Amino acid sequence: MSVDRQLLSGNEAVALAALHCGIALGTGYPGTPSTEILEVFSELGGRAQWAPNEKVAVEVALGAAYAKARALATMKHVGLNVASDPFFTAAYTGISGALIVVSADDPGMASSQNEQDNRWYAAAAGVPMLEPSDSQEAYDFFAEAVRISERWRLPVLFRMTTRVCNSKTLVHPSMPVLPAPGTAFERDIPGRVMIPAYARAAHRRLREKLTQITEWNETSALNRRIAGEKALGLIASGIAYMHAREAAPRASVLKLGLTYPLPMRSIRSFVESVERCVVIEEGDPYLAEAIRAEGLAVESKPPMYRFGELTVGRVRRILARDEAPEPAPPRGKPPSLCPTCPYRPVFQALKDLDCIVAGDIGCYTLGVLPPFEAMDTCVCMGASLGVGLGLRHALPPQEARRVVSVIGDSTFVHSGISGLVEMVYNPPTTGHVVLILDNGTTAMTGRQEHPATGRALDHEPTGKLVIEDLARALGVEQVDVTDPALNPDGFRTLLQDRLASGKTSVVIARRPCLLAAGAIKTYERAAAEKCKEDAE
Ligand SMILES: Cc1ncc(C[n+]2csc(CCOP(=O)(O)OP(=O)(O)O)c2C)c(N)n1
């Protein structure tokens, strides 16, 4: 190793560990706070690619792991909802190489639509889960995750949270680089084809593996006991461990690293060794409930601390059993659409026409704020289509004709396409209008490429999905491409016309995000030059 100490974020540490572990393929979909993992992995020389969505990412990684490769799939917490279908059954089939699924949770919702706690996914799917507390652990635990995955031939959930992903701490990248295994396909029909007859046996195999991992976890170095006062014992994992240490430096601590399946004998012996035992955890009472279900008397935090991130101050309050209202957090400047955002005329038109807007997730969600306030629903990626169609089906025709589904280009590719299929298959009697805001990038998460930009994660040219061709091929009756910034009045007239038409319509409002436009031009120029050179 050339550098023996580096200041790295948790995300960077995972990327470095992935490289040192011989991860053959990293795939995922952007989402705060996970996005940098694949970007840094690619910069370090790893093979990284964006998938159209998280489900596809996990499936591609699973296929690679069936071929004995070590594979990584990254996503934010809600991404695992999208990927949960393959995730659950991958636990049954197991793998031949290694499969690490990184879930970056966002307690406090710095940039998410909910603050779900993905630790439940590990327990629900029967997938071992590791939770690093800082960048060193992100690095070390990743290697351990690969070992666990290979030893038990199971996917491993690598659960991080915002502070672990983003905080920079020192890392000794001391791991000997693990040689990448040779890949090969070995047929295993009963192991891989989950028809009920084979899946029944697979489920039993999974439970046997989990029993073995539970036993192994009882003595695993992933969990540590930090000696301290007998009067107070704390059980914590992930970032909560850091807060707990700072809030109560003299307490005894049981730090858990592998938090599914839990080492209950070790937990029992710790609980019995202290006079008062408090579980310190961010988000849901995942650990506290599991420990109490064993009949152990541990304190959990009051429900008010379930909301938002944990802090050292909050841990002190929990330990003092302080349930007094907390001071309101300082108010930051609310976000807003960039002054030069090409979506501004779009939201102005939606407002002027008094549309009912089934919205979606991206920068454009900011159209909900003043001065436009032109968004009526926002649930999850891709929901604008289904929700818009449902509104159209249920509302009286006069009102139904006001409904528009508004979705960004990356979001459309992620999970809007099947909504378009639904529109063609079950068209509302009033028709419907889908507005695709194509700014040529995934702006919200830092301007990543996606299949409709025609460039790969490293911005090199690749196959391109042409949205208007797709819409036409799917059977949408009217497909228009327009630049709303160039001709706002023309855009408004077009929208008005399509709303009145009673047909199924897709309007693609195409104009690059101003923050991405310069880079896009550079990539296009480089690609054109390369093309010219190749032709010569
Ligand atoms: C399942 C899921 N994955 C990822 C995210 C994070 N995320 C929200 S919107 C979005 C894409 C935004 O891109 P686009 O639709 O092109 O809109 P833009 O931000 O460019 O306006 C991403 C990656 C999420 N909220 N949910």
How would you describe what is shown here?
- A seven-stranded mixed beta sheet has the order 3-2-4-5-7-6-12, sandwiched between helices. The protein has a five-stranded parallel beta sheet with strand order 14-15-16-18-17, with helices on both faces. A four-stranded mixed beta sheet has the order 9-11-10-13, sandwiched between helices.
- It has three domains: 6-218, 3-Layer(aba) Sandwich (Rossmann fold), CATH 3.40.50.970; 224-319, 3-Layer(aba) Sandwich (Rossmann fold); 344-534, Thiamin diphosphate (ThDP)-binding fold, Pyr/PP domains (Rossmann fold), CATH 3.40.50.970.
- It has helices at 10-20, 36-43, 54-66, 77-93, 119-125, 135-152, 162-166, 189-192, 196-218, 238-247, 264-273, 286-292, 312-319, 344-352, 383-394, 397-400, 409-425, 467-474, 488-501, 514-535; strands at residues 6-9, 25-28, 48-50, 70-76, 98-105, 129-130, 155-161, 168-171, 224-226, 229-237, 251-256, 258-260, 276-280, 356-358, 403-408, 432-438, 478-482, 504-510.
- It is built from 20 helices and 18 strands.
- The mean pLDDT is 96.
- It is of the alpha/beta class.
- Thiamine diphosphate (TPP) binds at residues 29-31, 54, 76, 78-79, 82, 361-364, 381, 408-411, 439, 441-445.
Query: By CATH's scheme, which homologous superfamily of the largest domain applies?
Result: Thiamin diphosphate (ThDP)-binding fold, Pyr/PP domains
The total number of structural domains is 3
Task: Classify the secondary structure makeup into a structural class.
Answer: alpha/beta
Reading side by side through the largest sheet, how are the strands ordered? 3-2-4-5-7-6-12
CATH architecture descriptor of the largest domain: 3-Layer(aba) Sandwich
Assembly context of the chains: single chain
Helix tally equals 20
Query: What is the share of helical residues?
Result: 40-55%
